[in-house]
């Protein structure tokens, strides 16, 4: 066990540490800051969305998406146009093969 004198010294040291304690005081203009935060308006969902969309990264990604969609639509239309043209050419070829033309040789004279 510790002797009584050692315990008494620790008790006096603890009491002496309380001698220079001061009361707590807030930082200057703390109340003004708190009131300003309480009076601040809450942003609507539209304002929040506008702030998010106006970020440069979101704008660049949006433009890239629009360009990719446009390119895919153009390529799809070109492929569809060529397939339609091929079908019409093949239909014309079939008609030419199946058609009988009136010539002078096979005209019936009444």
Care to describe what's here?
This protein has 4 helices and no strands. It has a domain at 26-98. With 110 residues, the chain is an all-alpha fold. It has helices at 4-17, 30-39, 45-53, 56-98.
Task: Return the structural class.
Answer: mainly alpha
Major sheet attributes: none
Q: What series of H and E elements makes up the topology?
A: HHHH
Instruction: State which percent range the strand residues make up.
Output: under 5%
Q: If helices are DSSP runs of H or I spanning 4 or more residues, what is the number of helices?
A: 4
Overall mean confidence score, pLDDT: 79
**Euclidean distance between termini CA atoms:** 146 Å
Global morphology: rod-shaped
C-alpha Rg (nearest Å)? 46 Å
> Helicity level, as a percent range?
55-70%
The number of strands is 0
Instruction: Give the low-pLDDT segments.
Output: none
